[in-house]
Write a structure and sequence with these properties.
The protein is 18% helix and 32% strand. It has helices at residues 37-47, 57-69, 166-176, 186-193, 286-302, and strands at 8-23, 27-35, 50-51, 75-81, 88-89, 124-129, 134-139, 146-151, 156-159, 179-180, 200-205, 212-213, 235-239, 245-249, 255-261, 264-278, 310-313, 323-328. The protein contains five helices and 18 strands. By secondary structure, it is α+β, with helices and mostly antiparallel strands.
């Protein structure tokens, strides 16, 4: 500010308040109404944040305490689940695929059905003749099938003579060629179908032991029982009576469940400031007040004010922002704190 032009200066005193929104640990909510995992997820997302994410032993203890407080014994749903649609190609190099090609599919009737027998989930894909051409079908990876490799050096497809399990076929293709073949579009679907003579492995699969959280958080914490995860369920439940061990269950089962939300906590701090300006400025003008506040905020940012903090003027008892004291130019200046030392 130009301090030399006016003969009369105003010493302005006011206070600035800033607030920072912080997040406290997850707050759990027990819902006694029994629902399937999918319906429980929908209710949690509607009324809270999501089905419970459990990130530590301390969270397990809090969840058990909550269930006990509601008199519940047995299992409750939490937000961990297996995404049965998480299909991916064995040759998983993004540059190999054009736009939309990693998502191309040619499923047979009612496929993938993710059927689980007594021992094995269906996590690998064969191309199977269904009378109207070769379609995609999910089956257990342990089955022996012919397989088709892709060779990147010759940009060609190689059909096997013998049969192997999916994992052994993948190992063979990676050793002798590039990988199991990907089918990226309708043209390649027809190209592959033209050389097949029986049910044949392609490179599509999913990790049948990979579980993720409903809120898509990356927490790696798990508390599985010694028998889990198993081939029999895609959704995780906590057994309250067994120390909080987790079990994978069929998502269609009806169980109570635990939701969570994240309460927002506002931390507020007030700072008193002294400013010097010329007497010609209308300090009751909101535009002037906003400009000064912007300058203060810039200084505070440079000195470490959190990015999420919001500043505002605090009104005094008379409804004014500033109180003022006048002093004539040339008078002995009294000691004061400089605003740029805040």
């Amino acid at each position: 500010m130009d301090m030399d032009s006016p003969a009369l200066l105003l010493l302005l005193m006011s206070a600035v308040t800033w607030s920072v929104m912080a997040r406290s640990p997850h707050q759990y909510h027990f819902v006694s109404e029994e629902k399937s995992w999918t319906d429980a997820q929908a209710l949690c997302r509607e009324q809270f944040t999501d089905l419970a994410t459990v990130e530590s032993e301390q969270d397990v203890g809090r969840l058990l305490q909550l269930a006990g407080d509601h008199g519940h014994s047995g299992e409750v749903w939490i937000g961990l689940y297996q995404d049965v649609q998480s299909w991916t190609w064995s040759l998983n190099q993004a540059a190999f695929y054009g736009e939309g090609e990693m998502g191309y599919s040619n499923w047979g009737h009612d496929q993938p059905d993710n059927y689980r027998d007594a021992d094995d989930p269906e996590c690998c894909i064969e191309m199977k003749d269904e009378g109207k051409g070769y379609m995609w079908n999910d089956i257990p990876c342990k089955f022996n099938r012919h397989f088709i490799c892709y060779d990147g050096n010759s940009d060609s497809l190689i059909l096997s003579n013998g049969t192997l399990s999916w994992e052994d076929a993948q190992r063979y293709c990676r050793t002798h060629h590039t990988d199991l073949a990907s089918v990226r579009n309708e043209s390649e679907q027809q190209q592959v179908s033209a050389i097949l003579r029986a049910s044949t492995w392609i490179g599509l699969y999913r990790d049948c032991l990979l579980f993720r959280w409903s809120d898509q958080s990356g927490s790696p914490f798990r508390n599985w029982s010694s028998s889990s995860p198993s081939p029999w369920g895609n959704c995780a439940a906590v057994d309250v009576t067994r120390g909080g061990d987790w079990y994978d269950r069929s998502c269609d089962l009806l169980k109570p469940f635990v939701c969570y939300d994240v309460p927002k906590v506002t931390h507020m701090q007030t700072m008193r400031v002294e400013l010097k300006t010329d007497s010609q400025k209308d300090m009751s003008d909101p535009a002037v007040q906003a400009a000064i506040l912007q300058q203060i905020e810039k200084r505070l940012r440079e000195k470490g004010l959190p990015a999420g903090a919001k500043l505002k003027w605090r009104e005094q008892e008379d409804g004014q922002i500033f109180s003022k004291k006048t002093e004539k130019k040339g008078m002995k200046k009294r000691s004061k704190r400089r605003s740029d030392e805040l």
